[in-house]
């Protein structure tokens, strides 16, 4: 029994169909609890008022946006090295989820910034980095959709993902160098002094877990769809060969 | 390898090679800038380093879709892949030829266009130095993008979408160096970073470009 | 050169499987088979342009010259410049024998863009001679050649064989060459069982 068994599409589909309902419930409950707790049962911030609560959407979305790219990077590496189709399809499936999360983080960030800084947008390093990440997602998705042969597309997008990751990190440092910024530090870090108050952090953790499960659910679901699309394509090809 | 470089240079210079198109584009963009932001000298002087960097970058981008597509269409790439020359060398030489025929003229033209935009006197040398250090990275990254999209019809727009995000760090450090130079500040850090990016991309990216090209040749 | 148990795919679908044959110096092998049966894919695989699904190609590493439908001719360069370029890439010496063999001497300084389709094809085939390689992998080499040029080309191949070379040629016309014929359609890939229809989606 090894993890690579799930690289078999059939095995992947049957297993994911079994666990998906559970994950749906988990994601739904965690998101609901976290958001309701965060929105209605936390105090207003003494400086920011109620607008601080947008954090409960903004921070988890940003967290997923980055980790979705990281997951795509790992999945691309697995495809390049071990050539499991499911892995390539999972990377493909994660990209639209990642780009939506990035967009949510950008939009909620703009709303929040409008309240606190009085402007919709500043070219702050964090915001700029997310905008650049958004562009990387767009390029990745565009390349997938431009190439007809699925294996060729998987190969090319994997290499783009690897190269893009290096350049994304490079852009992050370049942007930091370019503008020191206005954004507050990381909302959660291991260094206790820097963290947001405990009253906020607990519901925030719940929200992040909820968003994490939501991401997992969406990616599993979309990967299943991609596998079926791939299979339909293969079946149609068989028909043509039989004819 | 020398043969390939010489052939590419010759092809660029012959009729229909597109040599000079990038330069003309650079000139036009620079001329359009005052029309769009207004003719005030102080404003132009302030934005000149950034505008010139952006113009050079776009002119460079414009010529990328011909970089490998022509060799793809007439079968040269197939024959290259079966020749003793490794594809890693082929893409490196292609990038070098692109740099010589497209980027180098842009670097040399930039100070002339700087006059049009009232670039401060102190800025000229640093503009040229930053472009000289940064444009090799633009050519090498562009070759990677061209290799990714070589098999696609009408891949030009996709090529821009893929390459422009990869250009971000180079543009930031390059324009920063040119701007600091124009303001009379220290340019050492951005120039070092720029040189680092150029050196690293030149050393590593050809492997990715060749891998991508092999996939596309299948 | 030995081909053993070669399986190849086109566009993700297997087209040929179990292709095995041997190509010895001095011999020519003519590939035949209906359109779309995988001749081109087979030749590209043997030339190393795409990986096989299974099987091995041994004995011809770095000794293959490949020529297909497009000849990699640059229209703005002259005939001489085009040939010299490939001679330098393959580091194989003079272009003189190639010029003579394909009767290109009179066109030496003509830009390739001013050549007719048949003349371009002759230039493309002349490239084979400047590669200095032993195994020629040729995909429909006689397209757009007139009858005299076909004879000329057959003569060049014969001399190449006599010099210890070998040729693998996919063609529909009779070149009058001595050599075996291999019908590719006998290797047509069978569709895999639906039950095994798992990992590779084939």
UniProtKB/TrEMBL annotation, chain B:
Subcellular localization(s) per the UniProt record: Cell inner membrane
This protein's UniProt keywords: Cell inner membrane, Cell membrane, Cytochrome c-type biogenesis, Membrane, Transmembrane, Transmembrane helix, Transport
GO cellular component, one term: plasma membrane
GO biological process, one term: cytochrome c biosynthetic process
Transmembrane segments: 12-37, 43-64, 96-117, 123-150, 157-178, 190-213
GO MF annotation terms: heme transmembrane transporter activity
Main subcellular location: membrane
Membrane topology: Multi-pass membrane protein
NCBIfam families: ccmB
Function noted in UniProt: Required for the export of heme to the periplasm for the biogenesis of c-type cytochromes.
Stated family: Belongs to the CcmB/CycW/HelB family.
Identification of the protein by name: Heme exporter protein B
């Amino acid at each position: 029994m090894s993890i690579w068994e799930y690289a078999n599409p059939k095995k992947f589909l049957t297993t994911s169909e079994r666990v998906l309902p559970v994950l749906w419930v988990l994601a739904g409950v965690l998101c609901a609890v976290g958001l309701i707790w965060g929105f209605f049962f936390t105090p207003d911030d003494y400086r920011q008022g109620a607008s601080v609560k947008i954090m409960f959407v903004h921070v988890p979305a940003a967290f997923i946006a980055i980790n979705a790219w990281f997951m795509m990077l790992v999945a691309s590496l697995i495809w390049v090295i071990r050539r499991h189709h499911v892995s390539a399809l999972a990377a493909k499936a994660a990209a639209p989820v990642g780009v939506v999360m990035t967009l949510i983080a950008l939009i909620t960030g703009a709303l929040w910034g409008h309240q606190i800084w009085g402007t919709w947008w500043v070219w702050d390093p964090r915001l700029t980095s997310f905008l650049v990440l958004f562009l990387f997602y767009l390029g990745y998705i565009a390349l997938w959709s431009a190439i007809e042969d699925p294996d060729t597309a998987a190969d090319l997008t994997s290499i783009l993902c690897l190269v893009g990751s290096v350049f994304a990190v490079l852009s992050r440092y370049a942007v930091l160098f370019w503008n020191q910024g206005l954004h507050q530090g990381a909302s959660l870090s291991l260094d206790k002094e820097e963290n947001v108050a405990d009253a906020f952090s607990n519901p925030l953790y719940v929200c992040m877990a909820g968003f994490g499960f939501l991401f997992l659910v969406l990616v599993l679901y979309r990967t299943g769809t991609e596998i079926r699309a791939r299979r339909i394509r293969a079946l149609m090809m068989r028909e043509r060969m039989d004819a | 390898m020398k043969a390939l470089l010489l052939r590419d240079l010759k092809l660029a210079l012959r009729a229909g090679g597109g040599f000079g198109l990038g330069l003309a584009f650079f000139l036009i963009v620079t001329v359009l800038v005052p029309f769009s932001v207004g003719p005030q000298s102080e404003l132009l002087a302030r934005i000149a380093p950034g505008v010139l960097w952006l113009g050079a970058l776009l002119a460079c981008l414009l010529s990328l879709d011909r970089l490998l597509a022509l060799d793809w269409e007439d079968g040269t790439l197939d024959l290259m892949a079966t020749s003793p020359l490794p594809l890693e060398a082929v893409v490196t030489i292609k990038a070098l030829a692109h740099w010589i025929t497209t980027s180098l003229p842009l670097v040399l033209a930039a100070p002339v266009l700087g006059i049009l935009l009232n670039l401060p006197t102190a800025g000229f040398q640093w503009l040229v130095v930053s472009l000289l250090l940064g444009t090799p990275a633009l050519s090498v990254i562009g070759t990677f993008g061209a290799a990714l999209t070589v098999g696609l019809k009408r891949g030009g727009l996709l090529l821009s979408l893929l390459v422009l995000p990869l250009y971000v760090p180079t543009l930031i450090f390059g324009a920063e160096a040119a701007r600091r130079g124009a303001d009379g500040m220290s340019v050492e850090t951005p120039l070092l970073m720029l040189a680092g990016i150029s050196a690293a991309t030149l050393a590593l990216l050809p492997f990715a470009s060749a891998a991508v090209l092999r996939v596309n040749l299948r | 050169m030995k081909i053993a148990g070669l399986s190849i795919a086109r566009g993700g679908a297997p087209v040929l499987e179990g292709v095995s044959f041997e190509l010895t110096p001095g011999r020519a092998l003519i590939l035949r088979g209906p359109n779309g049966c995988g001749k081109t894919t087979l030749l590209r695989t043997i030339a190393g342009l795409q990986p096989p699904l299974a099987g091995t190609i041994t004995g011809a590493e770095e000794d293959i010259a490949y020529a297909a439908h497009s000849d990699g001719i640059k229209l703005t360069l002259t005939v001489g410049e085009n040939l010299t370029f490939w001679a330098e890439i393959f580091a194989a010496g003079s272009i003189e024998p190639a010029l003579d063999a394909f009767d290109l001497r009179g066109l030496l300084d003509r830009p390739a863009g001013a050549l007719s389709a048949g003349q371009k094809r002759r230039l493309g085939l002349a490239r084979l001679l400047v590669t200095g390689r032993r195994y020629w992998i040729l995909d429909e080499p006689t397209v757009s050649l007139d009858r005299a040029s076909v004879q000329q080309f057959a003569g060049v191949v014969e001399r190449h064989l006599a010099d210890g070379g070998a040729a693998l040629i996919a063609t529909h016309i009779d070149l009058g060459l001595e050599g075996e014929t291999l019908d590719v359609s006998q290797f047509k890939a069978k569709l895999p069982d639906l039950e095994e229809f798992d990992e590779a989606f084939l």
